[in-house]
Amino acid sequence: MGTLLNILHVVTAVFIVGPMAILPMTGMRAIRAGNAGQVLTLAKSTFVLSLASLAVVIFGFGAMSLAEKRFNLSVTTPWILISIVLYIIALIVSLAIVVPFMRRAGHRLQEAESRSSGATGTEAAPTDGRPGAGNSMSEYSLIAMSSGISAVLLLVIVILMVWKP
């Protein structure tokens, strides 16, 4: 049973946490392209995957509880505790900053699209691929910075899980 939980822990980390970290970067490309629908879809996917990443934690706790006693693993084991804290921070950053600002950028791009389609004889709002097109530069920068922080935290967790100092 311990082996099964280890496998589930690693598989969910790869197939859920990996995309959770990468999708916002794809979202930034969609923002630059001015693709509102794609940005909103990626924001929703990032939200769902962020919540689904809790399965990684559940399987990790299960694997830890079934580990051989000689490893003496518990929540207070330093590398496990640090990993839990870093995961909580990454999850909060993703859910509280990345997803809401991706949604905001998507809605701003939709507004720009509707203005441009409703404009008769006037110049449409710029959505020419610039980060500031259809949204403010600070929003784009905040998505870039916070998704980068989240990805780095998740990378540190992977290092701790493999290294087990």
Summarize the structure in words.
This protein is mainly alpha-helical and 165 residues long. The protein has one domain (2-111, 128-163). It has helices at residues 2-33, 36-52, 54-65, 78-118, 137-163. The longest helix is centred in the middle third of the chain and has 41 residues, at 78-118.
Summarize the structure.
By secondary structure, the protein is mostly helical. Helices cover 78% and strands 0% of the residues.
Top keywords for this entry?
165 residues, elongated, 5 helices, mainly alpha
What is the averaged pLDDT score? 90
Overall outline: elongated
Number of strands: 0
Q: Segments where pLDDT lies below 50 for 5+ residues?
A: 121-135
Q: Which structural class do you get from the secondary structure elements?
A: mainly alpha
Question: What is the succession of H and E elements?
Answer: HHHHH
Number of domain modules: 1
Report the end-to-end length measured between terminal Cα atoms. Answer: 25 Å
Largest sheet: none
Radius of gyration: 20 Å
The number of helical segments is 5
Percent of residues in β-strands: under 5%
Helix content: over 70%
Produce the secondary structure layout.
Elements: H1 2-33, H2 36-52, H3 54-65, H4 78-118, H5 137-163
